[in-house]
Design goal:
Helix content: 40-55%
Structural class: alpha/beta
Distance between the termini: 7 Å
Number of helices: 10
Number of strands: 8
CATH superfamily of the largest domain: HAD superfamily/HAD-like
Largest sheet: 6 strands, parallel
CATH architecture of the largest domain: 3-Layer(aba) Sandwich
CATH topology of the largest domain: Rossmann fold
Radius of gyration: 17 Å
Shape: globular
Strand order of the largest sheet: 5-4-1-6-7-8
Strand content: 5-15%
CATH class of the largest domain: Alpha Beta
Length: about 240
């Protein structure tokens, strides 16, 4: 296996505890859309999070249209995507916190100088930047090494499409097998695996009673290993490098 030179981190609920906050805002807008389309279903933030974790809002709206058989025209889609971004950023700038133990590992990696580091997210770029700035993690990532499937690509997409990982590798000038991705969700891990990047799974942001199930799910998707806590990162990375 080639030498690992870069670590590519998912953002939401991997670096920053942002998913719950984001899905509160998403639920308000999703319910507004469903009401306008005459559909009785309504979502709470946690219900949306359970169904659509790892997807950006654009991808979620595509899934909702398929699930409930309605259509948003392109203008409506852009209006709601823009509204969601603003609402989520407001919540993140006020309340976002880092994932437990993550800062210590980022600091160690930064001081070691052994690896380049990048953020590879499905979320809109402004949202990702707002998240890492709020929790003081932006200092670990060069501005041009923060990538968004919703914003950084010519054609917006969302994980599990591997396009954003392949784009990130191209920009940083590395082959996928020279990188390691860290992911917490089904869609994110699938994107990394499809891009041929070794993936370390992370389940520490899930409720304790869900962690074993998520561990098994991530391993089943092809993650090389899965950590329950960020304190396990060194061990997991060493295992991947030894493959």
């Amino acid at each position: 296996m080639p030498k690992i030179t870069h670590i590519l981190f998912d953002c939401d609920n991997t670096l920053v505890l942002s998913e719950e906050l984001a899905f509160e805002a998403c639920a308000d807008l999703s319910n507004e859309i469903l009401a306008k389309k005459g559909i009785d279903q309504r979502y709470t933030g946690p219900e949306l999070l359970k169904d659509f974790v790892g997807q950006n809002f654009r991808g979620m709206l595509v899934s909702l249209q398929k699930k409930f058989n309605f259509e948003l025209d392109p203008e409506e889609m852009e209006k709601y995507v823009s509204a969601e971004e603003g609402a989520v950023i407001k919540k993140l700038e006020r309340d976002a916190k880092p994932c437990v133990g993550c800062d210590e590992e980022l600091e160690k990696l930064s001081k070691s100088g052994k690896y380049g580091m990048a953020v590879v997210s499905s979320s809109a770029l402004r949202r990702v930047v707002a998240s890492v700035k709020k929790v003081d993690q932006a200092k670990y990532f060069p501005e041009n090494h923060i990538f968004s499937a919703a914003t950084s690509l010519d054609k917006p997409t969302t994980k599990p499409d591997p396009a954003i990982y392949l784009h990130a590798c191209k920009v940083i000038g590395k082959k996928p097998e020279e990188c390691v991705a860290v992911e917490d969700s089904k869609s994110g891990a699938t994107a990394g695996v499809r891009a041929n990047i070794p993936v370390i799974g992370y389940v520490g942001s899930y409720p304790e009673n869900e962690q074993k199930e998520k561990y098994e799910m991530l391993m089943g998707l092809g993650c090389k290993n899965v950590m329950y806590n960020w304190s396990e990162f060194d061990k997991c990375l060493a295992e991947v490098e030894a493959l």
